[in-house]
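Q: What does the assembly look like in three dimensions?
Context provided by user:
Components: two
Sequences:
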Amino acid sequence: MSEFKVGILSCSGEECLGGTISRLATRKVLEELKLVETVTLCLPLYLAGGEEERNFAKVFPTISVDGCNKLCAKRSTEKYSGKINGSVDVSEIIGTENALNTKIVRNKDLTEAHFKMVDKVAGEIIKAISRIPPDSYSGKTFGGCGCKE
Amino acid sequence: MNNKVKVIPCSGIGKVYGLMAREAALKTVLELCPEKAETICLARIVTGDKEVTDKIEGCDCITVDGCPQMCASKNVSIAGGRVIKEIKVLETVKEHKGKKFGSATQLEDSGEIVVSEIAGKIANIINQNN
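A: Here is the predicted structure of the complete assembly.
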């Protein structure tokens, strides 16, 4: 198990399916990725919280996950917290038409096809994590596969 | 600017209560009051973009928060929205002690029941307001 932590920030947008997929894919990575420890933060805490929350992207190498090309999570993080280390735009993965679907947004309305989209986006988040340069890990040396003594 | 009440949840990603806030708001705007209410992505509000502050400024808003940080309420107020009611998920949850509601990823049946109750409360406020 790695001691290193990566931050993942989802837009969780409520207006369209892309937001739901971004939220679920982020949750999937948080729950299932074991090689690298992951942490998250509720995006609105940048304004509702304190300095600790606004330091998030300074403390953790951070990946933003946005449901549409407005890229609210990416832009908010760079505006309030710090530079991000990678970003995932769900609409580029599942298509803009799917991402901007305003009728199917609730979890209970999702079908198997939607959960496949979640898996695909989660895969892209993991790829983005793998591209983070080793020197981004809060001054620590990244042990790669974790087998380093 | 339209006259629809804006129902804006926190969608908190760390705990089940954030998901309950999100699902209750979405049930309200998509199923119970689609003609009278709509939602706006809270993440868009956080950006502070003029496009979204123009959309929310001076509008009647109902916020739905899953924890005492009250992110939805605070961010909507900062953006100039008129918060006519702050819904606190935990107030309804307290009436269902001992139940398992699910996780921040997926609700269990008890979670869906609480979501329906909260959505009903929001819909009542919207209907009284119109």
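Follow-up: The interface with chain B takes residues 10-15, 19, 23-24, 26-28, 31, 40, 42-49, 70, 72-73, 75-76, 79, 103, 105-108 of chain A (CB under 8 Å).
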